[in-house]
Amino acid sequence: MNAQELEILIKDLVALPKESEWVEFKVNNANPQEIGEYISALSNSACYHKKDFAYLVYGIEDATHQLAGTTFRPLSEKKGNQELENWLVTQLNPRIDVNIYEFDFNGLHFAIFKIQATRNTPVSFRGEYYIRVGSYKKRLDDHPEKEREIWRIENTPVFENGIAQDNSSEEDILQLIDYPAFFELLKLPLPDNRKGIIERLLQEKVIIQTPQAYQIKNLGAILFAKDLNQFDPISRKALRVIFYKGTNRIYTIKEQTGGKGYAVGFEGLIKYLDEQLPSNEVIDKALRKRVSLYPLLAIRELVANALIHQDFSIKGSSPMVEVFSNRIEITNPGKPLIDPLRFVDHNPESRNEILARFMRRLNICEERGSGIDKVVFECEYHQLPAPEIIVGDNYTRIILYAHKTLRQMDKQDKVRACYLHACLRYVSGEYMTNQSLRERFGIEEQNYSMASRIISDTIKAGLIKDYDTESKSRKYAKYVPFWF
Fold this sequence. Notes:
The chain has helices at about 5-15, 30-50, 85-90, 145-150, 170-175, 180-185, 195-205, 220-225, 260-275, 295-310, 355-360, 370-380, 410-425, 435-440, 450-460, and strands spanning about 25, 55-60, 80, 80-85, 90-95, 100-105, 110-115, 125, 130-135, 135-140, 165-170, 205-210, 215, 240-245, 250-255, 280-285, 285-290, 320-325, 325-335, 390, 395-400, 430-435, 465, 480. With about 475 residues, the protein is α+β, with helices and mostly antiparallel strands. The protein has four domains: about 5-150, 2-Layer Sandwich (Methyltransferase, Cobalt-precorrin-4 Transmethylase, Domain 2), CATH 3.30.950; about 160-235, no CATH class; about 240-400, Heat Shock Protein 90 (2-Layer Sandwich); about 410-480, Winged helix-like DNA-binding domain superfamily/Winged helix DNA-binding domain (Arc Repressor Mutant, subunit A, Orthogonal Bundle), CATH 1.10.10.10. Helix 10 (about 295-310) runs antiparallel to helix 12, helix 13 (about 410-425) packs across helix 15 (about 450-460) and helix 14 (about 435-440) packs across helix 15. The longest helix has 17 residues, at about 30-50. The protein starts with a helix and ends with a strand.
């Protein structure tokens, strides 16, 4: 992993919830025996939680997730006459990959143990098996239900590591992959020869070299293909944009299916949507300018999320943007891995973490956990109804609604907006109040009872609750989401 990848990784890990059982933070504990026990526990826990890797991170305070730095240098440590890394691996059974990285970030030193998740067989360290339960390391023997689950979990293929094109020559690669865009998006100088281009594609794991030729990975094709139709395994995963007449799907005005890889075609896609979406003309400082009816930042985040979080194992289905006269629906194949009611506060879990991390490197999507927050904020800022999240049997859909007055909103619209407003306030370190909700809906102060009714309906729906149950004042009461 290069320096940029390590910086993204540490930001992602710090943003995780405090109770993650596949990540352990430490500052300076360098006891080899304890490190080995943690490797066993974390590998087994990562398997139990269906993760590909676990992480033991030095330089982060466990309780606060604050960056503290470390004086521990595992790559220089020894156990007896052996290097620490080699000694640790030899004590594990079965042998799993453990990679150690040391690097400096924000003027501090960090070390990360990247630990492969076991599959089908629990990992022991010096004959003992361990597991993480909450934030504690426990003996696996004391948790037979978790051990049984680990024995049942088989290796599952990682989409990004699959092969989109086999037996490719260097010429094939340069014809199929948009390598100039690849270097531009990574802000790297374009090599002046074929060898330099191929070496960088190999380094970034976009392609793989075999004894006879090269293979183009799904990761490389889905992000950087000149034409996705040239890759049979992923040709049906191109994003579709459909415009309808009116509020239903009876009459289609036009339909566009993307041809480029997600990364190289993303900005063009967003520009196309911006140009085609309904807009108004406003006069600002004597100049006319076009203003979209939907916040472009929200659309950008939701489209990126649909691409990243889709379930690639669902065949014959692709991400889709559907535009109606009163709303935009953005759909991706697959159910979310977390409860939709927790989208704002919970750090997202992606089936396609390699893809997600690469797209963060390219600044196509936000740092982990901030995208949906921005969508809710943009809807509030532009006085739009709150986005709606719908989960079907094999899809996730988020709906952005065009402007509605408060009178035009139904009870469900108001309750949903109230709940998401409370979530947004909470993750911003604030509390929802009658006043903040009035500002969200544009309700005059003398009509505070209207906001009170919406709050009451949202409490009855079980989505928010009083922060201070002892307070007698309803006008100045504070409210928090139900999960607080």
